[in-house]
């Protein structure tokens, strides 16, 4: 009998080695799933509360990548600084026009409301005059 054998002739380290192999396999599978979830969170397919660091890392990495590669990978168009500024200015102009139109609509609505109230008042006056005329007869 060697130094690695027990009284029955079996190796002592076999159970330990089997446990280490199973634990390593379980740890590998767990790490794989955590990595997949973090990648999906980084691309906003899923959302995990405390995994913002992965999203920030992807965004900072994308910042230094070739725009053609980003466009082919995400399917979204990458804008240049000039295009972004132009779109931002167009957006501000459109928002300003919408605010102006909204103010005009509110003014027209208040005028309609005033006219409606005046019509209601006139209807009451007409009804009172009819009642007064009926009393006179």
Q: Topology of this protein?
A:
Layout: H1 13-42, H2 52-63, H3 67-74, H4 81-136
Helix pairs in contact: 1-2
What does this structure look like?
This protein has 137 residues and is an all-alpha fold. The chain has helices at residues 13-42, 52-63, 67-74, 81-136. The chain starts with 12 loop residues before the first helix and ends with a helix. 1% of the residues are buried. The model has no long low-confidence stretch (mean pLDDT 83).
Helix and strand pattern: HHHH
Helix content: over 70%
Low-confidence parts, pLDDT < 50 over ≥5 residues? none
Q: What's the number of extended β-strand segments?
A: 0
Strand content: under 5%
Mean pLDDT: 83
- Given the helix and strand composition, which structural class is it? mainly alpha
How large, in whole angstroms, is the Cα Rg? 38 Å
Distance between the termini: 136 Å
| Principal-axis shape | elongated
Report the biggest beta sheet as strand number plus sense, adding barrel if it closes. Answer: none
Number of helices: 4
């Amino acid at each position: 009998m060697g130094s690695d054998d027990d009284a029955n002739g079996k190796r002592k380290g076999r159970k330990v080695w089997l446990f280490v192999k199973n634990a390593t396999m379980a740890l590998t599978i767990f790490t794989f799933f955590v990595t997949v979830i973090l990648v999906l969170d980084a691309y906003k397919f899923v959302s995990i509360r405390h995994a913002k660091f992965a999203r920030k890392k992807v965004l900072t990495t994308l910042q230094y990548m070739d725009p053609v590669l980003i466009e082919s990978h995400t399917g979204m168009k990458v804008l240049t600084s000039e295009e972004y500024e132009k779109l931002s200015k167009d957006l501000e102009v459109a928002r300003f026009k919408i605010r102006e139109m909204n103010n005009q609509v509110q003014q027209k609505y208040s005028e309609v409301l005033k006219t409606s109230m005046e019509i209601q008042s006139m209807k009451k006056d007409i009804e009172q005059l009819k009642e007064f005329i009926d009393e006179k007869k």
